[in-house]
Amino acid sequence: MEGFVIKTTGSWYKVLCAEGQAYDCRLRGSFRMKGNKSTNPIAVGDRVSFIVETSDNTGVITEIKDRKNCIVRRSTKLSKQTHVIAANIDQNCLVVTLGFPRTSTGFIDRILVTSEAYHIPAVIIFNKIDLYNDELWEYHNEIKGMYEKVGYRCLEISARENRNIDQVRELVKDKTTLFTGHSGVGKSALINAIDPELKLRVGDVSEWSMKGKHTTTFAEIFPFAQGGYIIDTPGIKEFGMVNFSKEEISHFFPEMRNVLHGCRFANCRHEHEPGCAVKQAVADGIIDEVRYQNYINILNGREMELEDWETR
Ligand SMILES: Nc1nc2c(ncn2[C@@H]2O[C@H](COP(=O)(O)OP(=O)(O)O)[C@@H](O)[C@H]2O)c(=O)[nH]1
Ligand SMILES: [Mg+2]
Ligand SMILES: [Zn+2]
Predict the structure, then answer these.
(1) What is the pTM of this model?
(2) Which atom of ligand 1 is least distant from the CA of 158?
(3) Between residues 203 and 251, which one has the greater pLDDT?
């Protein structure tokens, strides 16, 4: 049988077949992926072959198909091990809130850089616009303008008040969409608003504001009634970016990618080097200072702390 993994819980994998049937599967004992540094050999979205055990109707996974793509983060801050969030995805919807809690641009840029690195188109969804006052609208327009200028599509929504949810429905239709963003921004609430049949658990404030609590949670895939699949990622309390090489990071900033061929040195890191086209573009106002500063922080491996989410 063949199908794709819609949920993982420790050693069990729920596999959905084209006929609409789901099977609880395990990985064959001898199965090991060579040279795999990730903590999870199989992620949601993976396509697999499996054999059904007639005794209890559970399955044994015998093969994992090659992935079209996958998106990976570090499993913990100091670890070299990685965690595959999901595989075979068409787009990443990054849900952010500028009101409460405030998603920092540092956090946004880490997720955007990761999306760029894995060639997964990203859309930024600003949720909770119902909480905005004039001051927040002003801040919102500034941040949104910054990302639109770089080329990212931005949506402004309220999951609670059902504002502009039709735009999100249109966006996810017939695609496999990953929803990312830190806890409390309303990912589950948004998915429920898109498809009320799904009835995902919406967290209360105390749950996501519990700082530092380590929870190992996995993404889960939901078929969208109007076509396509939606992937909810719970529990991203921090986003440990995998360590990309310093030379490639600027290539994951589209506006830097556009100018960096003009740098004097081919291996320019756009930090202290003379004749740097990126720094010139920042000085000329072509590249936003905020984006550049976030680039420098990523370049120097500065970790985001939870507190930084609301201050940067
Ligand atoms: N005011 C407001 N609150 C929202 C909105 N969307 C979600 N919330 C609230 O934000 C909290 C976290 O929502 P949840 O969907 O669990 O966030 P998740 O951790 O990203 O899945 C809950 O208390 C929701 O009721 C919104 O558009 N406006
Ligand atoms: Mg959630
Ligand atoms: Zn440069």
Answers:
(1) 0.91
(2) 27
(3) 251
